[in-house]
Sequence to fold (450 residues):
Amino acid sequence: MRNFFQLIRRYNFLLVFLLLQGLSFFLLSRNNGYQRASIVGASNQVTGEMYVAYSNVTDYLTLGETNRLLSEENARLRKNDSLAFYSSLADSTHVNDTLAVQQYDYISARVINNSVKNVNNYLTLDKGSLNGVQPEMAVIGSNGVVGIVKDVSEHFCTVISLLHRSTKISSKVASSEYFGSTIWDGSSPEYAHLFDIPSHAKVSLGDSIVTSTYSGIFPRGILIGTVSGLGESGESFKEIEVRLSTNFRTLSYVYIVRNLFKAERDSLEAKTAELPE
Amino acid sequence: MILRILQNLFRFLILVFIQVFILNQIVLPGDLNAYINPNIYVLFLLMLPIQINRLLLLFICFLCGLSIDIFMSTAGLHASACLFIGLVRPGLINLVISRESNDNNIELSMSGMGIQSFLIYASVLIVVHHFALMLLEAFNFLHFLNLLLRVVTASLSTIILITLSQLLIIRNR
Fold:
């Protein structure tokens, strides 16, 4: 026993190093899942407030660009508004539409912290559980897909950016029905890759890549990017380079998408998975 | 003693502020950001007093890295990389500071150590830190050559920034 204590005393430096290193790895591995270690989660509130103060100052710098994007989006939405369509029926009656039930609800949020330079990037938004944000909600910008909500505190939420190695977005080529997954390789924040598209699928440069309905997180048909390069990976699959439509460097306002049917779909799919073969 | 603690605490706050709200917010064109990615906050660890207890040093390294992690949502990544600084630093100081200056009160800065010694001391620790940081971040050996290149360029940018800040401090005296 005495020898044991002597050993500890002699190598205490190395032991403390290994202990702390182990703690770091523990935090690191916890961080990769959807739940974050509670110390870091709790301090989100503190760092969140600081990022809001910072973003209040720097938002002025991107005001011009933000205005342009918002007005473009307004124009696009106005185009789809029923007021924009000329009615050829003179005496049309108003029908209270019970066939179309609202499935998606959008929460507007401001980006208060954002990074593009790491291998795994995160955003922080100024909406939290008080605004109805929950983990695993989709986040889209005015130009397309941004990421998926990870952690939520009362007033803030962190988002796993599309520019994150564990992000895998179920996507399809807009002109055909072939689907695959969009994955970011960690280098340029302007490009990602689309995998699992069979090599016999007809894909040409400039085709739009949009979200598919398989994920259950993103609404169908949200733009991810356009095809900017084609290659073969293995024998039977194409590897497609996608130029992302969202400019992650200048992101300042985004929408959090709440899928009102998600709970219903998840419980149904869980029930099916439970059944014995 | 208290003055020294306050001095270091102040340095820590300033450097974390610069790191989080200035350097981490700079966006460069293309994928340049992956290559030029200075981590100036390690200067705080480099400049901790020479006679500091080695165990205390490890804990300070861990906490310093963790505070950066909290801001960057990378729990444990910087903490782990900073711990390597704490591991290497005591031995490196014995190597770099020559026998003739047995002064135990030497300041670990460019003015205290001389330009050459400081550059060697800082470069070794910064390269160790960046190497650990980027290897842990990538967590594989897939693009190892590219990773090495990134370690070199990021370390260079950090060393240049730290040298500049040291020169400014000397100028002020």
Q: What stands out?
A: Residues 2-26 of chain A form one domain. Residues 199 and 235 of chain A are 8 Å apart (CA to CA). The longest strand of chain A covers residues 104-114. Chain A touches chain B at residues 12-13, 16-17, 20-21, 23-31, 36-37, 40, 43, 47, 54, 58, 115-120, 122, 124, 158, 186-189, 249 (CB under 8 Å).
